[in-house]
Specification:
alpha+beta; Beta-Lactamase; two-stranded antiparallel sheet; 9 helices; 18% strand; globular
């Protein structure tokens, strides 16, 4: 059955506009949104006006810029309330942050990006600065690689096909072939590495979190400027992250088979 023929284009465009406004910059003029999404200005204006009426976006009357509205915040909070594993993860994340002296992140997959849904700050004053709700690419983050590696073959292939590879550092993966090989390694060893691929001075180690069915529903990572990878301490850092992810998974009802 071809479900695409039942899709409503105006709703898809509205959703894309909301995603555009959710990016880190946060404030966009009509022309910027139209260029970003390759829409004409009149269509963009009408959709923004409708979203504003619903409270999903707000307009700054001085600058003419649009941003997400209170209704979008309420919907996002409703989604987070449904995700019980966030509360389950909190004490494990706090303990991990204390143990490794690094920032700990929890993230889920959203199309070609990851979304940070919780964080435990590093006890050290020098830690990674991030925001809940912030997004990052799947192909150059430890969290993203974990989440992508454990999707179905059909879903991961679709995501990989749609990725526009942007080099953030000299270490960033910039080809599908290299990413596919990397994901194979992630599946074999059960964790992923970010070797200063997204940010020049940040290394990350990520591991999957599974629900009671064994499905990977989120990923856990440690991030920071402290050298972890290709050092004598790498195995210790990895073991801490993997063990924390396993603990959260077990609290979600996942039973690991020998």
């Amino acid at each position: 059955m071809d479900r695409d023929r039942y899709l409503i284009n105006s709703i898809l465009r509205a959703c894309n506009i909301l995603r555009c406004l959710s990016r880190e910059k946060g404030y966009f003029k009509i022309g910027e949104v139209a260029r970003e999404l390759k829409l004409d200005r009149s269509t963009t204006y009408r959709i923004l006006l409708s979203l504003e009426r619903c409270g999903l976006v707000e307009k700054d009357q001085k600058t003419g810029e649009y941003s997400l509205g209170m209704a979008a915040f309420e919907i996002g909070n409703a989604y987070l309330r449904r995700m019980d594993f966030i509360q389950i993860s909190k004490p494990v994340m706090a303990d991990l942050a204390l143990k490794v002296q690094e920032t700990v992140h929890l993230a889920v997959l959203s199309e070609k990006e990851i979304v940070y849904i919780d964080r435990a700050d590093s006890p050290r004053s020098l830690g990674v600065i991030s925001k809940i709700g912030q997004t990052a690419p799947v192909y150059c983050t430890a969290l993203g690689k974990v989440l992508l590696a454990f999707q179905t073959e059909e879903e991961s292939s679709k995501i990989i096909h749609d990725i526009k590879f942007t080099p953030f550092t000299k270490n960033t993966i910039t080809s599908r072939k290299r990413l596919i090989k990397e994901l194979e390694e992630v599946r074999k060893r059960g964790y992923a590495l970010d070797q200063r691929e997204h940010e020049e001075d940040v290394e990350c180690i990520g591991a999957p979190i599974r629900d009671h069915h064994g499905n990977v529903i989120a990923a856990l990572s440690i991030s920071g400027p402290q050298r972890k990878i290709n050092t004598p301490s790498e195995k210790l850092y990895v073991s801490h992250v993997v063990e924390a992810a396993r603990l959260i998974s077990s609290k979600m009802g996942y039973v690991e088979t020998p």
